[in-house]
Amino acid sequence: MQPTLEIHVYGTVQGVGFRYSTKQIADQLGIVGTVENLADGSVKILAQGDYKKLDELVAKIKDAPSPSAEVVDASIKFTKLPAFTDFKTI
User: pTM value?
Assistant: First the structure.
């Protein structure tokens, strides 16, 4: 079972292409999972992959992958979920 991260990203992350950019990065890194907007204005990412690739994803997310996005904070924790087969935007 691969490690799974649950990442909540706060700031200007909705309506600026953040989910699309996150999916592109995940696909490039071979990470599977989901990315979705939440009602509170944050974005939730569930990501599975090897530790090195997850570290790369987190670094790129904190750097705001979309030019119009601004990441103010990100909470990150390991969680246990069934295996994903691809990366989806919800």
Answer: 0.94
**pLDDT tens-digit profile of 22-53?**
999 999 999 999 999 999 999 999 999 999 99
Looking at the structure of the chain, the number of domains it has is: 1
Residue 53: which CATH number? 3.30.70.100
Q: Which domain holds residue 18?
A: 4-83
Please count the other Cβ atoms lying within 10 Å of the Cβ belonging to residue 3.
14
Active site residues: 19, 37
Tens-digit pLDDT profile for residues 5-18: 999 999 999 999 99
Instruction: Evaluate whether residue 89 is within a structural domain.
Output: no
What backbone torsions phi and psi does residue 20 show, to the nearest 5 degrees? -60, -45
